[in-house]
Amino acid sequence: MRERRKMKSRMLDLLLFLPNLVRLLLSLLRDPRVSSADKAILAGTIIYVIAPIDVIPDFIPFIGLVDDSYLVAIAILRLLNRADEQVVMKHWHGEMNLKELVAGISHVAQYFLPKRIKNVLHGRIEREAGGVAESRAVNQ
Predict the structure, then answer these.
(1) Which of 89, 91, 100, 123 is the most buried (most CB within 10 A)?
(2) What is the DSSP letter of 131?
């Protein structure tokens, strides 16, 4: 029970970064150096986050935002592994190390997501990424 409280507290802290991360995705959508395939994934992620209906509805306190933050984190991790990291970092205006932030969100969110939902979200990224190296990077 103590670990769950600790993880929930950590996740609440990390959820505060979600608006900045969505802004990062929007900025990257406008960058011509980001590939069309990556832009499609970023756009899909943004739509998922802002859509009122998703796998875990946002009106459910706390857990409703966990799936959104998890998807944003793995989309950014994927982009950091596929694109020039300098391109991504040019658009990041946060104080925290972006890679550490999204890896932390991904790790903590997995603690709360139901296994079935986590597998669906993770599986979609794996298939789109198309490689073992990508899926290892997502799990960091």
Answers:
(1) 91
(2) S
- Residue 32 tokens, joined: 């011509």
Of 113, 102, 114, residue with least CA distance to 139 = 102
**Contact present, 55 and 88 (Cβ < 8 Å):** no
Residue-level length of the chain: 140
Mean pLDDT check: name the lowest of 17-21, 75-79, 119-123. 119-123
Listing DSSP states for 83-116 in one string gives: S-HHHHHHH---SS-HHHHHHHHHHHHHHHS-HH
Residue 30 in 3-state DSSP?
coil
Question: What separation in angstroms does the CA of 20 have from each of 14, 48, 122, 129?
Answer: 11, 16, 22, 24
For 66, the token pair is: 């966990």
First to last CA, the chain: 24
What is the predicted pLDDT for the residue at 109? 85
Q: State the Cα–Cα distance between residues 74 and 80, nearest whole angstrom.
A: 10
Q: Distance between CA atoms of 57 and 65, rounded to whole angstroms?
A: 8
In total, how many domains does the chain have?
1
Which residues, at least 6 apart from 14, have a Cβ–Cβ distance to it below 8 Å? 69, 101, 104, 105, 108
